[in-house]
Amino acid sequence: MFYKVLSKLLDYPDEALMAAVPELRVEIKRGFEAAEWLVLDRFLNHLESLNLTDLQGSYVQTFDLTPEHALNLTHHLFGDDKNRGPALIDLSVFYKEYGLEMVSKDMAANEGASNEIPDYLPLMLEFSEMLSEEEARIFMSQWAKILNQLASNLEEAQSPYAPLIRLVEQRALLVKAAA
Questions:
Q1: 34-38, 40-44, 114-118, 169-173: the lowest-pLDDT one
Q2: Any idea what DSSP says for residue 68?
Q3: Nearest to residue 134, comparing CAs of 178, 90, 95, 94?
Q4: What is residue 99's predicted lDDT score, i.e. its pLDDT?
């Protein structure tokens, strides 16, 4: 449930998200540690404090118009370099091995398919929800350094999304601590 909730909260805000806030409050009270619950509750309060248009504008400004805040994690490694392509292909193949099919943006999304590129953090979190907790932490642990940088960039901009990225990073770091 952790990855599913974070995936929803880090994705582009829409009417469905806003309608789901009461349900999300119930979910986070049941399935999250106290420190995580506080972070998520604070973020839900933020969502409720703005209208949808303002939330969407803020989201676009934060993630789409500011490259240092990109939710496409390989962008932080490669930028627009040609070496990014093979990394995205490898990630797509990895997803396919677990039954998650990627489709092109111009195709309608099918059940179990996504129209995002494979390194989009909400998609990665959605995929992680399909895994066991240990597998999900191992999968996300390879992105811990990028998550740290992304969170730092968002903190510097005083973005309300920064604590959400820190939650994902902390889960990923639990694997490294146990190793």
A1: 114-118
A2: G
A3: 178
A4: 86
CA distance 6 to 1: 9
Q: Is the per-residue pLDDT at 108 higher than 60?
A: no
Helix (H, G, I), strand (E, B) or coil at 101: strand
Residue with tokens 């005083």: 158
Domain boundaries, the chain: 2-79+121-178
158: left (phi over 0), alpha (psi -120 to 50) or beta: left
**Alpha carbons 92 and 78: distance in angstroms, whole number:** 17
At 51, the amino acid letter reads N
The length of the chain in residues reads 179
Query: Residue 22 is encoded by which pair of tokens?
Result: 């009461």
Give, as one character, the DSSP assignment of residue 50: S
Going from the C-alpha of 13 to that of each of 2, 7, 89, 117, the distances in angstroms are 18, 11, 27, 18
Contact 172, 137 (CB under 8 A): yes
> 57: Cβ–Cβ under 8 A, 6 or more apart, which residues?
none
d(CA 142, CA 24): 28
Predicted structure pTM score: 0.88
